[in-house]
Amino acid sequence: MNDYGLIIEPGTLRIQRLLPGTLEHVWAYLTESDKRASWLAAGDMTLQKGAKVELLFCHSKLTDEPENLPAKYKQYGGNVANIGHITCIFPPRLLSFTWAEQNEGRPSEVMFELVERGDNVLLTVTHRRLPNRDTMLTVTSGWHTHLDILVDRLLARAPRPFWATFAKMEDEYRVKL
């Protein structure tokens, strides 16, 4: 399996990870605030269609090592809120919600699909309606980095540094995209 995200149609990214554990265990890392905060973002999520999704990002809390925030991403220092609503849910296999409704224009949408693969779970993340190449580059690098940290957490190892990994991925995706 290729760890890199792929553009599967204009404005749509798909990225996958083979994760250790059961469907229910991985599902908890997608839906429970405390577990999700360890790799992505904390925040309330009522698991029903139409319910509000609140993601509160605090990248400095994703790893134990202090990091310098790149000047380019200064607006992502501290806590950053992302608001959406659940568009589809079939526990513990599928969760889809709008992303960044607070921004102008039509929000994008993220879908998580979980499929058992022996003692592992294949997680597929599809992020649709990304408006342009710059957004695609940032989102792809972000998902790649967050999912790598999720793998680290599920394997009970120290997570890689967020911003250093993100910068490396951004350079690599700049060439790939």
Give your account of this protein's structure.
The chain is built from four helices and seven strands, in the order ββααβββββαα. Helices cover 29% and strands 31% of the residues. β5 and β6 (108-117) form a beta hairpin. The chain has a seven-stranded antiparallel sheet, covered by helices on one side. It is an alpha+beta fold and 177 residues long. It has a single domain (6-176), classed as 2-Layer Sandwich (Alpha-D-Glucose-1,6-Bisphosphate, Chain A, domain 4).
Short structural summary:
With 177 residues, this protein is of the alpha+beta class.
Give the tags.
ASHA1/2-like_C, seven-stranded antiparallel beta sheet, ATPase, Alpha-D-Glucose-1,6-Bisphosphate, Chain A, domain 4, 177 residues, 29% helix, START-like_dom_sf, 7 strands
Largest sheet: 7 strands, antiparallel
The helix tally amounts to 4
Architecture (CATH level 2) name: 2-Layer Sandwich
CATH superfamily: START domain
Radius of gyration: 15 Å
Helix content: 25-40%
Secondary structure layout:
Elements: E1 6-9, E2 12-20, H1 23-31, H2 33-37, E3 52-57, E4 80-90, E5 94-99, E6 108-117, E7 120-128, H3 133-154, H4 162-176
Antiparallel strand pairs: 1-2, 2-7, 3-4, 4-5, 5-6, 6-7
Helix pairs in contact: 3-4
